[in-house]
């Protein structure tokens, strides 16, 4: 054994578990690469926009993350493992580039989505923001802004929002801090 190894600075034996984990992630990424480009873009932008709303109050809770994963599985038709990666990537992108990409991703989604897709996104975004028990005032503002950017009418926004009335922080007497 060399002095470098004794100091923990020598070459390390590969950890078989981390190698297996890397292989699993690589397979999932390869499967995502196998999706048709338009479908992959749709799923990626959908997940990004869900994370946009979740991050509106500067915190994405575990409940919101799980809700995004369930929605990406259900709406995107992805296996759970892929949905987890897509959501994590969307959360990271939103954290790093959200301020500059929020508007452009929403407008791009609006250009390629049907009215039904836009309404479904809004419904899912409300569900994500309500997953941790309430739709904060900050989330509500972003949801309204997103509805506008998607080209939805005010009555569409109100119809979806009314289904989450009991979760709206602005209507709660204990709202105080926006939650």
Question: Care to describe what's here?
Answer:
The chain is mostly helical and 179 residues long. The chain has a single domain, classed as TerB-like. It contains 8 helices and no strands. The protein has helices at 3-6, 16-33, 37-54, 62-76, 80-112, 115-130, 137-150, 154-162. Mean pLDDT is 84; it is low at 175-179.
Topology of this structure?
Layout: H1 3-6, H2 16-33, H3 37-54, H4 62-76, H5 80-112, H6 115-130, H7 137-150, H8 154-162
Helix pairs in contact: 3-4, 3-5, 3-6, 4-5, 4-6, 6-7, 6-8
Keywords:
mainly alpha, TerB-like, 179 residues
Concise summary:
The protein contains 8 helices and no strands. It is an all-alpha fold.
Low-confidence stretches: 175-179
Which term fits the overall shape? globular
Report the radius of gyration as a whole number of Å: 20 Å
Spell out the helices and strands N to C: HHHHHHHH
State the major sheet.
none
Q: CATH architecture, please?
A: Orthogonal Bundle
Measured as a percent range, the helix fraction is: over 70%
Tally of DSSP helical segments: 8
Kindly report the average pLDDT value: 84
């Amino acid at each position: 054994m060399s002095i470098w190894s004794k100091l923990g600075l020598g070459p390390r034996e590969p950890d078989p578990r981390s190698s297996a984990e890397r292989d699993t992630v690589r397979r999932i990424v390869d499967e995502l690469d196998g999706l048709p480009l338009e479908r992959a873009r749709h799923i990626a932008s959908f997940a990004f926009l869900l994370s946009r709303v979740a991050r509106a109050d500067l915190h994405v809770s575990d409940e919101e993350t799980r809700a995004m994963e369930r929605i990406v599985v259900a709406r995107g038709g992805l296996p759970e493992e892929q949905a987890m990666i897509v959501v994590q990537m969307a959360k990271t992108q939103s954290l790093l580039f959200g301020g500059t990409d929020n508007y452009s991703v929403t407008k791009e989604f609006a250009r390629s989505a049907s009215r039904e897709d836009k309404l479904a996104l809004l419904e899912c975004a409300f569900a994500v923001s309500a997953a941790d028990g309430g739709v904060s005032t900050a989330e509500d503002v972003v949801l309204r802004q997103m509805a506008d950017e998607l080209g939805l009418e005010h009555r569409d926004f109100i119809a979806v929002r009314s289904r989450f009335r009991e979760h709206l922080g602005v209507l709660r007497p204990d709202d105080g801090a926006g939650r």
